Amino acid sequence: MKAANYKEFAGPKGVKVGELDLPELKEGEVLVKIKAAGVNPVDAVITKGYYKDMMPHSFPIIPGWDMAGVIKKRGHAARRFEEGDEIYAYARRPEIKWGTFAEYIVIPESYLARRPKNISVKEAAAIPLAGLTAYQALYVAGDLASGQKVLILGSSGGVGSFGIQLAKARGAEVIGVASSKNHEYMRSLGADHTIDYNDRDIGDAVKEIYPEGVDLIFDCTSGESLQQSLKSLKDSGKLVSILNQGDDLDPKIDHQFVFVEPNSLQLDQLRELVEEEKVKVKVSETYSLDEASQALQKIETLHTTGKIVIVP
Ligand SMILES: NC(=O)c1ccc[n+]([C@@H]2O[C@H](COP(=O)([O-])OP(=O)(O)OC[C@H]3O[C@@H](n4cnc5c(N)ncnc54)[C@H](OP(=O)(O)O)[C@@H]3O)[C@@H](O)[C@H]2O)c1
Fold first, then answer.
1. How far apart are CA 90 and CA 113, in angstroms?
2. Is domain 130-257 annotated with CATH 3.40.50.720?
3. What distance in Å separates the CA atoms of residue 71 and residue 168, rounded to the nearest whole number?
4. 302: CA distance to ligand 1 center in Å?
5. Mean pLDDT, to the nearest integer, of 184-213?
6. CA–CA distance, 58 with 66 (Å, rounded to integer)
């Protein structure tokens, strides 16, 4: 099959496209024809070897953890789906080797869920990693409740766009933080208030909107933006970060770091929210498989609006 791949940690520019053999289909696995693959910042980070001491890697590596596609073949005992079923998945495996920037993937069927029917395959491919991250951060770690106030740092990107919509679906009030050019977009997703991190101190701006502070900060940027925001967290409030592991934080802060896990039941929940039109997906750019390196260079800028996808 045709697949983007790399044989050493040389960053996004070292990603080439070539022919690779598919692995044998084993017990509980399915062969999926990939129709589209979402691109995430972590895909670029991995090409630089930043995860090499945390997870086993095996070259050549095919990048990509997100996909939507169709089941082509089932291995022995793989019976949850039929051939021809349209599925999507967050395909992070215990070993970094077989990714989604390819024509096909062989994967345990436990990773898969039926994809939303009311959106395009490109939009579906953009959901799993970022959608699950927002779900696990806001609904599981953050235990967000109706009427609560949540501040989302980095709310026009992949994760933050789902964050705004999931928070609104729970009945929360949302302040979104990103640069001004993205404020109209964030309001279209449901943000009640927007702040530009370039303009002013984020914590001061939040306190003008909610003098009593917010119940939850969902941090998708960390750094100075997070440090400025902390003064706007209520004493009883919680910080959920997908970047900050807490080393530079006041231990009095109720803080939880989330590293997104594959979860097909939560993908079912996300499908329902999309089919109820409570969650929409913005695909801002589409790349071909031959352009995988460019897609990775774009995502590592950390200034994507919505999501970008690769169509093999
Ligand atoms: N732990 C996990 O499981 C997990 C899961 C997913 C992602 N992540 C990480 O979380 C981060 C966000 O992921 P993503 O996919 O949402 O990235 P993304 O699509 O590139 O979005 C980045 C967002 O951050 C905003 N931004 C950039 N600089 C900022 C600053 N200084 N202050 C406030 N906002 C800023 C951007 O808005 P503007 O363009 O307007 O600046 C944009 O809204 C990445 O670093 C990614 O690696 C972690």
1. 9
2. yes
3. 33
4. 5
5. 98
6. 19
The answer to whether 194 and 164 have CB atoms below 8 angstroms apart is no
Q: Per-domain residue ranges for the chain?
A: 2-127+281-311, 130-257
Which protein residue has the closest C-alpha to ligand 1 atom 39?
303
**Which of 55, 296, 303 to mutate for ligand 1's pocket (most ligand atoms within 8 Å of CB)?**
303
- 161-180, pLDDT tens digit by residue? 999 999 999 999 999 999 99
CB 4 within 8 A of CB 17: yes
pTM exceeds 0.85, yes or no? yes
CA of 157 to the centre of ligand 1 (A): 6
Q: Give 56 Cα–ligand 1 centroid separation in angstroms.
A: 25
Q: Give the per-residue pLDDT at 249.
A: 96
- Which of 220, 224, 244 most suits a substitution to test ligand 1, by most atoms within 8 Å of the C-beta? 220
Ligand 1 surroundings by CB, under 6 angstroms: 40-42, 130, 133, 153-160, 177-179, 182, 197, 220-221, 225, 242-243, 258-260, 302-304
Residue type (1 letter), 182: N
CATH level 3 topology of 2-127+281-311: Quinone Oxidoreductase; Chain A, domain 1 (3.90.180)
- Cβ atoms of 279 and 11 within 8 Å: the answer is no
